[in-house]
Amino acid sequence: xxxxxxxxxxxxxxxxxxxxxxxxxxxxxxxxxxxxxxxxxxxxxxxxxxxxxxxxxxxxxxxxxxxxxxxxxxxxxxxxxxxxxxxxxxxxxxxxxxxxxxxxxxxxxxxxxxxxxxxxxxxxxxxxxxxxxxxxxxxxxxxxxxxxxxxxxxxxxxxxxxxxxxxxxxxxxxxxxxxxxxxxxxxxxxxxxxxxxxxxxxxxxxxxxxxxxxxxxxxxxxxxxxxxxxxxxxxxxxxxxxxxxxxxxxxxxxxxxxxxxxxxxxxxxxxxxxxxxxxxxxxxxxxxxxxxxxxxxxxxxxxxxxxxxxxxxxxxxxxxxxxxxxxxxxxxxxxxxxxxxxxxxxxxxxxxxxxxxxxxxxxxxxxxxxxxxxxxxxxxxxxxxxxxxxxxxxxxxxxxxxxxxxxxxxxxxxxxxxxxxxxxxxxxxxxxxxxxxxxxxxxxxxxxxxxxxxxxxxxxxxxxxxxxxxxxxxxxxxxxxxxxxxxxxxxxxxx
Length: 495
What we know:
- InterPro entries: Indolamine_dOase, Trp/Indoleamine_2_3_dOase-like.
- Residues 74-93 are annotated as: Disordered.
- It contains 19 helices and 4 strands.
- The protein has helices at residues 37-40, 62-73, 86-100, 114-134, 146-159, 167-172, 205-220, 222-237, 240-265, 267-270, 273-280, 322-331, 334-337, 355-358, 383-387, 393-403, 409-416, 419-458, 475-487, and strands at residues 141-144, 175-177, 195-197, 295-298.
- The strands form 2 sheets. The chain has a two-stranded parallel sheet with strand order 1-4.
- Helix 4 (114-134) crosses helix 5 (146-159), helix 8 packs antiparallel against helix 9 and helix 12 packs parallel to helix 16 (393-403).
């Protein structure tokens, strides 16, 4: 497939512009620019997905692409695979040795392009996960070699992302057309059945369908973003006509969310739960969600004095979807769904714009040290708020802008006294709650049930092995709690 080379991007396109520090220059000040696509990298056709992700880095970084190609073509196996053969183990070690022998490539020329940086993060984080999860389980400490550590941490610092596989790496920037359009920038959104993945761990249809379910949700959600913008425009007018239009838009938004629910449910058609749990999911676990207690040690970090030890290494999670966060923030549901529900008393948390003040800069934390513990510490930052640090920085700026809206829809509904508007709002919130009902079912089917089977096969009790999500949480309790608190956002007549 052909791909966009950075030199071929039109001069007036967002990605050809200098990379601004959206909303971060003034400490504590949210970005209050317009909701134009070029401000937040939200495409009118593909939403939070790029119109066409880069599929290959230029020749200067070909050795990274080659290493990833070899990992895939070698069909590397998980180190804890029950029937791992000596031949599989030897093949994995030969590949890891080639990775250790790679040169430490400069990232200086990557910094001129957001597109190149995203592809580099994709390639290097996939290489790291292939490396980490193919290491023999007898190895007590996971040492990531300098040829991966140095450029991955440098690229991650530029993108303000953690140096680990994220939702952006396995969904947002991991797709391509089956039948490519005739132009570099197609005029219409891609058809949901015209997608395939660029990179896979297992080369199975199950893995591809798992990622594509999320990709299809992102693309179908473009209409939701359009409706949000229309409602925000009407809210600034605030007259009787505007309220009637917002009422109609909310019903339409509910219909879009119902379609997202159907797409989510359809993951069952292409991805087998046992295959997912045992063969796919272990590959993209981060340090926080790995079952073992082994440290992840980033070797070579001392070669660049600007680098810091990573503290965010949770791995990809559906909680990193900017689209779902945008729905929460726009409807005012985030005050409920993003609360730290795992404590005894759920407490509504600050809105999304407060996240930068609470969270460390992604991928950095304190002075560099030789080693660090990858075990997640206790934190008062709610999981969904923390997951925003795994999103592309422009999308975080979008959420901050959305949450700083001076006329929030929920407040407008509460103060309008319009019964039809309140009912329409509740219809939209209820649709989001049903979406999360489906997510609860998916987590039960794909994580809870297979983990129970695994415990019983190993003769372990329930307490021996919690069913963790890839973000490091107790997966079922997490999605169930978010679902329950979404329902708590419904408004009662007269509120």
